[in-house]
Amino acid sequence: MIKPWEIFDSRIRSAMIAKRNLPFSKITNEKKTDLLNNLFQHETTNAARLIYIHIPFCNNVCPFCIYHKQKIGDKKIIAAYCSVVIKQIQALADTAWVNSAPFKAVYFGGGTPTSIPVEYLEAILNELKKSYRLTNDCEITVESTITDIKPAMVSRLKNAGVNRISLGVQSFNTAVRASLGRTATRQEISKTMAVIREEGISNICIDLMYNLKYQDFGIWQNDLSFLKTGPITGCSVYPLISASNRANPDKIEEKNAIETEYIYFIEADNCLVENSGWERFTSVQYGHREKGKAVYVTAQGQNADLLAFGSGAGGRIRNISYIQTGNIEEFNNNPGNFMSDSIMFLTIHDSFLKLRNIFGLSESLYLNKIDYNPIKKYFDDILFDLINKGLVVSNTDSFNLTQTGRFWAANISALFAEKIRDLIPQIADGNNA
Ligand code: SF4
After folding, report:
1. Which amino acid residue places its CA nearest to atom 7 of ligand 1?
2. Is the CB of 67 under 6 A from ligand 1?
3. Domains of the chain with bracketed CATH
4. Is 61's C-beta closer than 6 angstroms to any atom of ligand 1?
5. Does 62 sit in the ligand 1 pocket, CB within 6 Å?
6. Which residue has the higher pLDDT, 13 or 274?
7. Section 2-14 average pLDDT
8. CA of 386 to the centre of ligand 1 (A)
9. pLDDT tops 80 at residue 375
């Protein structure tokens, strides 16, 4: 019988990589005006709306990191950057689309948002609160490192409306952390959590990673146990991404085979949901069901529209996606409107709106059978195969990923993406009855 870690030849470790096969086409500059009018001058029917702000600066650049960022430097660059982000927010503020429904989550990611002076984060948030409708219980998350956290800064973030902090911990083990270029010890991590709590932010999510140098199974179990003893309310669990996707592949060696990854993943998946009151929100995100909500992350797997501001930030509204330039200098020269050449718009056939629900299977853990019915014939073969392999189970109203299915979630996304790529021409021809 095939072993659960041998179901696919190799493991895709990031949803971003899995989605590369989706058949988007670029929208030409000539068509941008019509597109933007079409997109923003109409009210939305999608109540799930999110905002992402990318802050691409870090005090130190970690060797394993695949995100868009640079080491913090000239203060003028940061000031110019935040000013363009605010201009972009203002540019959409009076549109019918923005005003038609409140936003339920705002996420400051990076990079490390707390590496820049806190007044910039306050200014961006104040602009959002002034010009956009946020829900009364809007989740506002700021990512940070342990060493950036200071009481005065957390207090100011809290006063500005931040109610969730996401910390890049990776491991509680001091030696493992040191191998990642992280200097804070386990004791310092505990003190940081206490500071955040004392300043009034109680939703604290951390990232943990497996497949790390110096990390053995005992250290992993110890990390998972330690997590349960502190004030942590949520946790994302990731493997180290393979060398070919890292900016600096020589610094960290990938040592574990897929079998070992599987064992680490299963240990975390079992351990985290055994934590009192915790549940699984997505295939990588866990948290306390009341105190550790992760609205931004969960809604992304459920077809939410996403407005994204900042260099390298990617947004999505209906069947339109856009990506902003990763070049910070170019971004800073952007006059702040969405007509700028530094923003690329992409589109996919309308039918993808239906297909996106299926694609969400791997992130949101389930596929609603009602959404699936109109396009059932195209995907039955994939689902049949996934069920046969023990990756998906068929329940009354939905298909759900099994535990092994969650381990292979990004591979399953990639299967759907490839199928969608092959199907779009047929669907575009009107053959989707
Ligand atoms: S892991 Fe976090 S702190 Fe390190 S370089 Fe990446 S974004 Fe910056």
Report:
1. 111
2. yes
3. 1-9+350-421 (1.10.10), 24-300 (3.20.20.70)
4. yes
5. yes
6. 274
7. 88
8. 35
9. no
207: pLDDT strictly greater than 80: yes
| Residue found by looking up tokens 């999510």 in the block | 205
What confidence category does residue 253 fall into, taking pLDDT thresholds of 50, 70 and 90? very low
Confidence of residue 304 (pLDDT cuts 50, 70, 90): confident
**Which residues in 62-121 belong to E strands, given as ranges?**
70-71, 103-110
CB 252 less than 6 A from any atom of ligand 1: no
Q: What is the SS3 string spanning 396-422?
A: CCEEEECHHHHHCHHHHHHHHHHHHHH
Query: If you write DSSP's letter for every residue of 33-48 in order, what string do you get?
Result: HHHHHHHHSS--S---
Distance 62 CA to ligand 1 centre (A): 5
Nearest protein Cα to ligand 1, atom 4: 62
Closest CA to 124 of 154, 79, 163: 79
**Residue 9: its pLDDT value, please?**
87
Establish whether residue 241 lines the binding site of ligand 1, counting it when its CB lies within 6 angstroms of any ligand atom.
no
CB distance 215 to ligand 1 below 6 Å: no
Q: What is the CA(149)–ligand 1 centre distance, in A?
A: 15
List, for residues 129-182, the tens digit of each pLDDT value: 999 999 999 999 999 999 999 999 999 999 999 999 999 999 999 999 988 888
CA angle at 188 for the pair 187 and 190, rounded to the nearest 5°: 65
- The alpha carbon of 401 and the centre of ligand 1 are apart by a number of angstroms equal to 30
Centroid of chain to Cα 292? 16
Flag whether the pTM goes above 0.85.
Answer: yes
Confidence of residue 371 (pLDDT cuts 50, 70, 90): confident
Nearest to 208 by CA among 168, 164, 173, 162: 168
Q: What tokens does 401 get? A: 């990923």
Query: What is the C-alpha R_g of the chain?
Result: 21
Q: Is the pLDDT of residue 267 over 60?
A: yes
